[in-house]
Every structure is written in structure tokens, then in C-alpha cells.
Design brief:
The structure is a homodimer. By secondary structure, the first copy, chain A, is an all-alpha fold. Chain A has 2 domains: about 1-75, Tetracycline Repressor, domain 2, CATH 1.10.357.10; about 90-195, Tetracycline Repressor, domain 2. Chain A contains 9 helices and no strands. The first copy, chain A, has helices at about 1-35, 40-45, 50-55, 60-75, 90-105, 105-120, 125-150, 160-175, 185-195. In chain A, α1 packs across α4 and α4 packs parallel to α7. At the A-B interface, α6, α7, α8 and α9 of A face α6, α7, α8 and α9 of B.
Chain lengths: ~200, ~200
């Protein structure tokens, strides 16, 4: 029984090592060759596994890439929260500036564009993304806004989903569509405009 | 000379007819087969032209599709403006609801996702899109906001570029990422939240 258990545990370790090698290979490779040329064959060769190993676990290159992003998140602790210094405007600016830096990071640019391409064309992947990656992130954002709302810093009747889209949406769009420079100044302007609204404050 | 001129004019007409046949074929075909399977060969076959004719005029299938979108716009008159009834909130809701209807139109869904995919991965196409399609649209939007600003309905120091992104960005994002239902109610909520801002109005 011990031998059996050891064999099974060794197999699990080998599986986990293969999984990590595949996900790392997918992430690296999409950066090097671009998403259009990313293939299961290429990922398999880079990871040193047979392509059947990949097909056994993932239905498409989009899902491999999606899991590669999930793996990136596994390193950070699960208790992540957005900063709360009591100064909502400053905290939001810090977080949106960090988002800008991430979107501008050349290591993530091509993989994130690839993931967004797949989401755009594959409703099943979009649902997985909404549930497992974007959903938890949005809940963190809503939580910070909810605390501010309780402290009277945000309107009582504010729809927090709309508020989250209004803060992060303009950054994501500008990045996706390359519609203009994605800078810290832009992040600051978005925060100020969203908080104050377009109408004059008297 | 008359004969020469007639021949040249006939050639121009034939070119224009081919151009329109190619653009229509691209638009129809991307709807039927999806963007991944759209090919220059397929467009050529559907349009009844040789593929060299397409390659002579366009460097990629993305640029063909982009011109197909430009052609759609050619039908509308060049004097388009956003509605101005004096009620900014009502006007913006009408326009954003129309945007929602367009994004939800099954005829445009796949071609627009395809165009956005290309924009995401092709900086040259993104620049052409920003200059020739998105730029003029954004100027119309800014113009309506500028008029409201002059009438004292919007903050004096409002950055109109940020305001435009804050109104239309959440719709585009929700559509691109399939992040939730894209409805008239959502359009209304975006307009109200953007105008009032996240902070309480006292």
C-alpha cells in the first residue's frame, strides 16, 4: 500500500510538473511568436511533452493560456485586498496606476491581448474568465467601493458594478484599441472624472 | 481621345464594382465562417475576382474588413451630428441605447469582433481605425459634450476625451469581454452614473 501510494504521489508530482511546464511554455511562447502563430504543437515542443498530454487536459490553446494566467495568480496570497488608507481618491489612483503599469508591461502585453482575443470569440472561455479571473478581481474592487460607500464617501444609491466599469473600463479600452497614450496621468484623470462626474459640482 | 477617356472611365467603373463586391463579400463571409476562417481566397471566390486583385489593393484580411466598415459609413450623409434637444441626459441615453442595439445586432457582431481583434494585434490598423473611423465618431461625441459644456450643463474643466471614454467605454468593454448583459437599462445606468459621478451630490 505504501508503495502504491508513493507511486501515485510520484505520478501526481510528475503531472503537476508537466502542467507547470506547459503553462510556462504557453506564456513564454505567445510572447515570442505572437498569438496567431501559437500552436499546441509549439507549446508541447517547448514544454518537452507530447501534444496528446496537452489535448488530454485542455480543449484549445485559448484554455491553456487562460490557465497560464490563473497560475500567475496562484503565487499571490488569496487574501488580496485593495489599499484602504481612508483616502479613496488616492487609493484608486494608486490602484489604477498599477493597472496601467501592468497593461504596459511588455511581458504581459501579447499574452493578455491573446487572452482577450479568445474571450471575444469564445463565449465558453468568456464565461470561465468572468467566473474565475475577472469575477474575483471585480469583487475586490467592489469591496473597496462598498467600504467607501458605507463611510459616506460614495453615493448611497451608486451601482457598484457600473462604478467598477467606469473606473477600469477606460483603461482597458485604451489598451485594447490602442486609442491613446496609457499613462499615470490618464489613470488620475479617469479617477477624478469618475468621482466628480461630468456635471458641474456647485 | 473620347474613346480613350471612355475606356478609362469604364475601367474605373469596373474597379469600383470589384471593390464593392470584395468588401461586401468580406463582410458577409466573416459572418458566416467566423474571423479565424476568413481568408483572402474565400473573399476572392465569393466576390468573383482573382485573389491577386485583392492583394493588389489590400495587404491583409484585416484591412479588407476595415474598408468594409468604412464603406458601410459611406451611405450615411457626412453631416451626422448627435441629437441635441437641450436635455443632455435624455440625448445621451438615446445615443447609448442606439450603441447597445448596434453592438447586439447579429449582423455586425462577428465583423466587429473581427475588426477589434485585428486592431488589438496590429498597431498599423489600430492607427488607421483611430484616424478614419473612431476619430470622426469621437469628434461628434466631443462636439455634443462641448455644446453642453458651453451651456453650463457640464463641468468647465471637464476633459472631454476622458468623458467620452467614460460614457462609451463601459458598453464596448461589456460587449468585448461578454462581462454581463448589454441592455438599455445598462446604457441608462452608465449615463446617470457618469453625469452624477460616484461621490454623493449634496
Amino acid at each position: 500500500m505504501t508503495t502504491l501510494r508513493k507511486a501515485s504521489s510520484n505520478a501526481a508530482r510528475r503531472s503537476e510538473a508537466s502542467r507547470q511546464a506547459i503553462l510556462t511554455a504557453a506564456f513564454d511562447l505567445v510572447n515570442e511568436v505572437g498569438y496567431a502563430k501559437l500552436s499546441i504543437e509549439g507549446i508541447a515542443a517547448r514544454a518537452g511533452v507530447g501534444k496528446q498530454t496537452i489535448y488530454r487536459w485542455w480543449p484549445s490553446k485559448g484554455m491553456v493560456l487562460f490557465d497560464a494566467f490563473l497560475m500567475l495568480g496562484e503565487g499571490s496570497d488569496g487574501e488580496a485586498v485593495l489599499p484602504d488608507t481612508g483616502d479613496l481618491e488616492a487609493d484608486l489612483k494608486a490602484v489604477l496606476r498599477a493597472t496601467v503599469a501592468e497593461l504596459n508591461d511588455p511581458r504581459y502585453d501579447e499574452p493578455m491581448r491573446a487572452l482577450n482575443t479568445e474571450i471575444m470569440h469564445d463565449p465558453a472561455l468568456a464565461a470561465a474568465y468572468a467566473e474565475r479571473l475577472d469575477g474575483p478581481m471585480k469583487e475586490l474592487k467592489r469591496q473597496r467601493l462598498r467600504d467607501a460607500q458605507r463611510a459616506g464617501q460614495l453615493a448611497d444609491d451608486l451601482d457598484l458594478d457600473v462604478a467598477v466599469e467606469m473606473l477600469w473600463g477606460p483603461l482597458l479600452n485604451r489598451w485594447l484599441q490602442r486609442g491613446g497614450p496609457l499613462t499615470s496621468e490618464y489613470a488620475d484623470a479617469v479617477v477624478e472624472t469618475a468621482l466628480n462626474g461630468l456635471r458641474p459640482r456647485r
